[in-house]
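Fill in residues.
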């Protein structure tokens, strides 16, 4: 499958918001929007209000990554704002994962989970059939500019194996420190399945 590209909007120049989005609309497969609460990770970033304004100037699917301790509080706001895909970390919803995935799907949107570098791939097996996307963090979540963790490439390979063995349909995505230097290491995965590479918007 061919790789798709999902520009990360967290670090974009907000004074050139419309200009940058219009420049990327023809090449982006998704727009990746990080929402952080300052609790699950020690950073605070974009919000459902940002999604609402992004939706006004693009038809590209908006992919929301929730790095928050209570995704159940934020998911309805993201749905109302126009998010197309919503993913959260399993650690933040261990006793309500099925409920949250069903909530997103019942709204007619796509759902996913995000695996931290130390989270095993087997964590998704019980609910893999519900997933539209599985994201592998190739850095610890929360801040841009970290070093790429090469061991995460093996996790992408295992997720592709789980997908093929189970007949699932989720996309595989890699998130963090993806640039010209690390792209070469990722090329071998294109033969096994589809993943998204994040680019910082400039």
């Amino acid at each position: 499958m061919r790789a798709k590209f999902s520009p990360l909007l967290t670090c974009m120049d907000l004074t050139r918001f419309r200009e940058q989005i219009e420049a990327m609309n023809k090449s982006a497969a998704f727009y990746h929007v990080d929402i952080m609460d300052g609790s699950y990770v020690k950073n605070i970033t974009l919000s459902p209000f940002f999604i609402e304004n992004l939706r006004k100037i693009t038809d590209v699917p908006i992919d929301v990554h929730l790095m928050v301790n209570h995704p159940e509080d934020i998911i309805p706001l993201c749905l109302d704002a126009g998010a197309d895909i919503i993913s959260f970390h399993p650690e933040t919803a261990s006793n309500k994962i099925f409920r949250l995935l069903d909530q997103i799907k019942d709204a007619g949107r796509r759902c996913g989970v995000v695996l931290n570098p130390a989270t095993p791939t087997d964590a998704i097996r019980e609910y893999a059939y519900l997933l539209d996307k599985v994201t592998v963090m190739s850095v610890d979540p929360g801040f841009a500019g970290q070093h790429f963790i090469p061991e995460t490439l093996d996790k992408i390979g295992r997720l592709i194996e789980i997908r093929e063995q189970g007949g699932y349909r989720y996309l595989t995505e890699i998130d963090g420190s993806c640039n010209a230097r690390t792209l070469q290491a990722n090329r071998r995965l294109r033969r096994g399945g589809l993943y998204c590479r994040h680019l910082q918007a400039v």
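The chain has one domain: 4-200.
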